[in-house]
Amino acid sequence: RYSLKASSGVGFNLDCMLWLKENYPQDAKNLKTAAAHIQDWVNTLQEQGLNGKTIHGYVDHLGTVFGVSPGDFELKTDPQNSKDRKMSKSEQKARASGRYDDFIALAEATGLRRAEIEKLKHSDFYLKDGYIWVHVEQGKGGKNTEQRIAMDRQNDPFLKEVLAKKSNEKVLLKTQIPNNISSHRIRRENAQKNYQYYLERCQ
User: Fold this and answer.
1) SS3 of the chain: helix, strand, coil, percent, to 5
2) Contacts (Cβ under 8 Å, ≥6 apart) of 77
3) Whether pTM exceeds 0.85
């Protein structure tokens, strides 16, 4: 009736319950004693080659019945799903080509998502209090926002060209939008730089 892996709304992972019954039949009869062996089940899944993200989802389904969370267990980080994973060869090649320099410049300066960058027009950029700002039309959640360009990009020649051209034309053509360059990586780096900037100002 239910998937062995997912909870399907019943509040637990049936695969885990069957594993506990097979390997610890006596302890499986009691929630408290059964919970003590969940780490063993997690270890078994890792030995089977399942990645950390998948196991995280499985363990999450145990919360209702056992009162546990993924953070209670040792889960090995999957390199392919790690935020610090190495840049792919495809992305390295795309960056080295120079073809997407303008996209990278916009992403680094604004910290916007790919879909938001695609919609940017020259008229969205403006000066306020001596700084370059950008108007984001219907960003995440359909909200309009105003964002200041990263401080280390305020004097970027490309950004100044974008600002100077007051038109409703899009800043980038579709051919200038890559599908193999991680905007998430750039957004993370942008957030880290901004954090460091304001941290130093507060000290």
Assistant:
1) 55, 10, 40
2) 52
3) no
